[in-house]
Amino acid sequence: MEKLKGRNNRIAGLAVSLAKPRPTPGYSPSVQCPNDGFGIYSDSYGPEYAHCKDVAWNILGDGLAYEDFSFPIFLLEDENETRVIKQCYQDHNLVQNGSLPTFPLCAMQLFSHMHAVLSTVTCMRRSYIQSTFSINPEIICDPLSDYNVWSLLRPINTSESMASADRVVVAATRLDSRSFFWNVAPGAESAVASFVTQLAAAEALQKVPDVATLPRNVMFVFFQGETFDYIGSSRMVYDMERGKFPVQLDNIDSFVELGQVALRNSLELWMHTDPMSQKNASVRNQVEALLDTVEKSSTGIPTLVLQRPSQSQPLPPSSLQRFLRARNISGVVLTDHSAAFHNHYFESVYDTAENINVSYPKGQSPEEDLNEVTETAKALADVATLLGRTLYQLAGGTNFSDSIQANPQTVTRLLYGFLVRSNNSWFQSFMRHDLRSFLGDGPLQHYIAVSSPTNTTYVVQYALANLTGTVVDLTREQCQDPSKAPSENKDIYEYSWVQGPLDINSTERLPQCVRSTVRLARALSPAFELKQWGSKEYSTWTESRWKDISARIFLIASKELEFITLMVGLGILIFSLVVTYCINAKADVLFMAPREPGSVSY
User: Fold this and answer.
1) 211: which of 78, 305, 396, 529 lies 20 to 30 Å off by Cα?
2) Please, what is the average pLDDT of the chain?
3) Angle, helix 193-206 to helix 408-419, in steps of 10 degrees
4) What are the tens digits of pLDDT across the range 298-310?
5) Cβ neighbours of residue 368 closer than 8 Å, sequence gap 6 or more
6) Which residue has the higher pLDDT, 453 or 239?
7) Which UniProt keywords apply (predicted)?
8) Residue 488 contacts residue 477 (beta carbons within 8 Å)
């Protein structure tokens, strides 16, 4: 690609098809130091850890996705279309017996007009001027944005801030991924495995009998836009600092984050902490207590062995870093890697179900695949069990820790829905009727985009509500407007009228109202609220607007034939002009008006 980039005067565009089988050594178009400069480590704070000096987390990253190409690059996903294009090339463009190919030749035209120019600063400034002074503004780029999904184990009044004495344990993970191509982001290991695990842990913890009486609350957060310099987590911290979020930074007791967890070597799960904040003795003691709790929670889970990296090793790329920039918090990031990622396809088109060993027996129906409990699902269910027990103990629970058990059936259904086929019977049951079109016959893509909420955000929101909420006896009108139900309060709960399960005696579904504490919070970088489009503190990623993206193939003739065609065309033109002139000159003869008939008398 670098060679082609250097010859861009001869390259008009590229059409790329996926390699099958995938490249075995691995491939990652991301950088070796993801989110560099936007985490906790910098040249002024922890310079020995800044820019991944200590650990190159993504050693296979070549940074291709961050390069600037002056020509369009299209991914051909449809195998039939790819086959037609390759056949056209082979039939007309390949060298035959050492001689040059003969005309006509196969050609391809790519249409990909982008409106944005230069950088975020330039395009946002132009868009701002247009929107300020023009009646019909032409916006040329948009900030990457979506919504974080969050919920509390015990409901609170979201119209006001929590009391300063209330304490919350945060369980966090990311929702998004990316690849070299727009909206192609399977993210199996980089995102899906971790948020599926957290969903299963939330379900397991919600079933504990004494959750309503725990001394501390538990908040589950699924951050959007973390791939693009921590958009979701930086926005939540920003809102917490300004009192725009019900939970404040001072309410956070501890922080447990799931990183990449699906590719464990043997039984090991690694607990990463921040060495800089632990220079404070009080924080160090809190972190030690946190790690002891995690290790204690693994008792009785024989498939997990908790490990601690060197105390001098920095945190991997994680949302926890953005919280630590604002306040010293006792936190841990759980991952399947001690240093460099085990994921050899980090943020690439190959980070699919195959990458985390999710497969199904041949010959099964989609419904059988949906309920097939895979080995990967069992392994992630064990991690979810660990997370559930850890959160329970951190929240002050003591009586039911050993009874907390994540359901492998839930994990396998979630993996199938997010990585194989989102349009399945279970996903349809907990989605709203007007959102059912978001579910397709393939996997969901986990790119944050600019039109929000995205499919992934909606599905995670309603999956979490289904797993942790309760079905209440409300009519559709009451569910959509809880003020019509005297016993309900929209400031405390969120209400969703969903399609519900299939009726046993028919093909119709039984709609129902689900009450939960699951809500959405804006995931838009504070840089765009502050109009600091060149910010080094917050993410400033934008996406260009464009016209329709399309391509076509056709045959082109030789230069000689084109010249002959031109000459023949000119000849016909000249001949037609001469004929037209002659006809016009003799028009009075050629088109003489007929005489009027004389009068006749009888």
Assistant:
1) 305
2) 91
3) 150
4) 999 999 999 999 9
5) 360
6) 239
7) Glycoprotein, Membrane, Notch signaling pathway, Signal, Transmembrane, Transmembrane helix
8) no
**Does the bond joining 104 to the residue before it have cis omega, within 30 degrees of 0?**
yes
- For the question of whether the overall pTM of this predicted structure is more than 0.85, the answer is yes
The CA angle 224-397-468, to the nearest 5 degrees, is 40
Q: How far apart are CA 331 and CA 287, in angstroms?
A: 7
* Measured distance between the N- and C-terminal CA atoms of the chain, rounded to whole angstroms: 98
d(CA 501, CA 387): 29
pLDDT confidence of residue 8: 59
Q: What is the pLDDT of residues 236-254, one digit of tens each?
A: 999 999 999 999 999 999 9
Residue environment code for 510-535, b if the CB has 16+ CB neighbours within 10 A, otherwise e: eebbbbbbbbbbbbbbbbbeeeebeb
Q: What is the Cα–Cα distance from 264 to 301, expressed in whole angstroms? A: 15
Q: How far apart are CA 160 and CA 477, in angstroms?
A: 26
- DSSP-derived 3-state class of residue 112: coil
Q: Are 385 and 204 in contact (CB under 8 A)?
A: yes
The whole-angstrom separation of Cα 148 and Cα 571 is: 68
Yes or no: say if 304 and 267 are a contact pair by the CB < 8 Å rule.
yes
- Angstrom distance (rounded) from CA 173 to CA 194: 7
Count how many Cα atoms sit within 13 Å of the Cα of residue 146 in the half-sphere of its side chain: 30
Angle between helices 281-297 and 375-394 (to 10 degrees): 130
What confidence tens digit (pLDDT) does each residue in 89-138 have?
A: 888 888 877 777 888 889 888 888 888 788 899 989 988 888 888 788 88
Mean pLDDT of all residues in 69-73:
84
Rounded Cα–Cα distance for residues 601 and 437 (Å): 85
Nearest to 297 by CA among 391, 176, 164, 227: 391
The alpha helices in 405-546, defined as continuous H runs, are 408-419, 425-430, 455-468, 476-480, 526-529
Pairwise CA distance, residues 576 & 178, whole Å: 59
184 CB burial (10 A radius; 0-12, 13-18, 19+):
middle
